[in-house]
Batch of 4 targets.
Target 1
Amino acid sequence: MKKTSEKRVIKNMKMKIIVIILFLFIGTVAYSKPMNIGFTVGLAVPNDDISQFYHYVRDSLKVAPDSTRVGDYLLDNATSVGYILGIKGRIELTNRFDLALGIGLARFNDAQYSIVPAVGSLSLDTSFAKIQSTTNIVPISAGINAYLLRSFINLYVIGDVTYNYISYSYDIVLKNKPGIPITNSTSDSRLGYSFGAGLDFDLSLFKINLETKFNAANIIGRVGDEKQKNYGTITVGIIF
């Protein structure tokens, strides 16, 4: 346990050093060139592993990965569409390339888990407990916008490296005690990436921005059997 904890601390230190070096470089570039600032809002569509509660319960009881049965009980989970808010900055490097910076908040707050009796135990319409799991991901990103078209309509593709702060919280309602241990997780910091495409409509005073991206939040720094957390985003914004 101690060795695992030490390895986790070392990984987090390495990631923080990488992020500090990256942003020192970005700061040097940004100091010498003007930056456009924008604000975005949109939908975030998660994969099934954004919330870790389901896996914690299953793994703590040594249930097979392909099974939802825990003794005489079944775990039923579903992760809903969330939302994302963001602030982005752009620094023009050339006519075809911009340095793209950003920070955001992706929130998935409607992942519900019903603990119900398995077949042969009690009635399937009886729920022993409901757990609502909230996952927050704060991505800090740096990447490149590569423009395919730049006029009144700007068409571009984007690729980012991201530093993600991930936190979880659980709201638990028990009707009685089904004997399933509930383990809260701690906050994590992970390196990831994102890529996608976007459109700007240049209205002279400001630009209307539409963007869609695929985001992988924890490619580097995962511990043990931690699942990969991916989500897609569709955003609309305004850039000054």
Note: The chain has one domain: 2-50+82-110+134-171+187-239.
Target 2
Amino acid sequence: MSRRPVLMAIVVLGLAAGAAQASTVVGLSVEDQARLSRYVVIGEVIGQKGVDHPAQGIETAVTLKVTEVMKGDLRPGRAVVFHTRGGQVGEVISEAIGEAVFKKGQKALVFIEEIDGRLYNLGLSMGVWDIHEDAAGRQLATRALRDDLEVVGAEAVEHGPVDIHEMAARVGYAVRNPRFDSEILRAALGQGR
């Protein structure tokens, strides 16, 4: 069994449909999110475009100019395009409840997964962190979790703020140590106890 269907079933338990009031994801540690991601990057949103994917429906293609790479083979200064669920194509609008919302010029840390050859932010808004500076000029990340995203499971969800250097160290640790923290993920992927 491939990792993709198992992980999608675990991470996104339910997307918005009809009269649904929330989407649900399993809460994961920063390290497990990094393990599931192809890329973990900081960048500035430089563009968005609604697209109509034949299988996934309406999505938004988000273009992020990369300023820092924590995981993956991207380079600073390059752009990466990933997709969010929901968007607008012409007059048709589709909303995925609990999905991240991006704005042009926004600086964000994004955990990006690959699904069937396409890039998506991991776990709706769970995989997106806003970047800001504190009074001392340190860069901090705060999870951009939407109120309409329900997070379930035993893992306590960290909201931040987290210093960017600490975040990079944690992502690096996850890359060097691929064993998942989450018992749910370990069981689904046959990693045992």
Note: Residues 3-188 form one domain.
Target 3
Amino acid sequence: MCRDPLNGYAEYICPCCCEKKKVAFTCKSRFCTSCGKVYIDKWVDKTVKDIFDVPHRHLVFTIPRQLRDVIFMDRSIIKIMTDCASRATVEALQIKGTDSIPGILTVVHTFGRDLKFNPHVHMLMTEGGLTSDNRWIDIPFLPYGLLRKKWQYHLLTELKAKLTKTMENSRFINFLFKKNTKGFYVNGESKMTSARYAAGYIGRYMARPALAEHKIIRYDGKTVTFWYIDHTTKRKVVKTLEAKDFIRLLIDHIPLKGFKMVRHYGLYGRRSKTTSMQILQVCKRFVQMSFEFVTNFTHSLSWRQRMIKSFGNDPLLCSKCKEEMLLWKIWHPQYGIIFDLSRDGPFLEENKNSQENHFENERKRHIQLALFPA
């Protein structure tokens, strides 16, 4: 359980009044509402350093209901979905007369608002790309009609090759082609001009739980009541399920161990990203448009900084005398005490070149010695 002291904790102590405070370890699960948020924040900070600070387009690639059960039984198809979405996007651009390659990030969602299994792909694509002669050109418009058909064609073609070759499967694929004459639906209304906003926008889709905690209205020990906004009617729907059924729906959306939720294509691909960055750094027009992606680096916030930012209170200030607390012990249920200040405290060196630092180190040394057991 998240923040259960029985699963380990860090203990802090005030050097003035010896007040102690335990901070229990978190579960580190992306499925946890709290830890998932921390995971997203760290991912966003890392991603901002790697993506180009240019306008991005948010695309959502969906599939018909008839395909959901097929993918539910074989989760490896989710990887095929992201590959096909990227391939369809690049081909749709190139057919329109440009050979530019955009930067593409994809994140898979497996749930809808009602918790039912509904896999779809969220894509973040740069509204520009590099041509074969290393020129950056804008991509202000996407041919959505063509993109929908390309998305349908590549996904169904890959599925046909993967599924067992039977008459029934062949008829099923043909049925999906005939029923969806305009292709599979793709939404691309959202546009973002900031790299940080774009990373934060797509990041919220990668690690959040299937249902926000505040949407659970009631739990009586047997049933769970929650609400969601219906995607079609835009109205609030209240639903009650048996506790076991509710848990089963949540478990259905836990990703397989080792599965990559985020994938990179085009200019953001592992093989081409370094080369792309080198080219764009010498591209005068691009650098003049936004130089921050080369020079501005962000740093992940620590646990303490996140608490101050979220709640406005410093968790390591003593509640009695307002002094900064020191790390006293770290306890792990399997390994016992893995850190003890009186045993493992660092040696504080005196800085002979600075009298100010000398007195400061002496003060810290006296504080540390005062904490040692007699």
Note: Confidence is low (pLDDT under 50) at residues 284-297, 347-356, 362-374.
Target 4
Amino acid sequence: MSLNISSPKRQLQGPWRRVVYVTLFELFAIAATSYGLSALTGESAAHSSIVAVITSAIAVAWNVVWNGLFERWEARQARRGRGFARRAAHALGMEGGLVVMLVPLFAWWFKVSLWQAFLMDLGLLLFFLVYTFAFNWAFDRVFGLPSSAQPQDLPQSVVTGAS
């Protein structure tokens, strides 16, 4: 018979974790993107909000793909947890993928060159690098780490002291 001294905190895991994550992330992102694009382009908030919603839809699809790939990679790593370097790699991969997809959209929507669209996206990228890092940190603090980042369980003999 073993004594269970600590009851693990219930954490949000699996597909529901991703749904909650993406929903909260994108609601804040739409508001920030609408304001940011409006300020960068001089277009109305309504004009910028339409592309912000389209951007959000693209980001949601990429987010699901990227987080799935990242967590599969993360689960194979010997070192568990999410330190600064791992969080930075996650944010860079997420935002780097979005740059590739969003620059052509911005060029078309705002009728500017790819270079101008890239410069516009660069401003948003810098904001979203910080936002992604901070959001992920806060999300993990509220909902706990995903199973891919949690320390592996100790063998029962270590927990109970049996040999």
Note: Residues 81 and 149 are 5 Å apart (CA to CA).
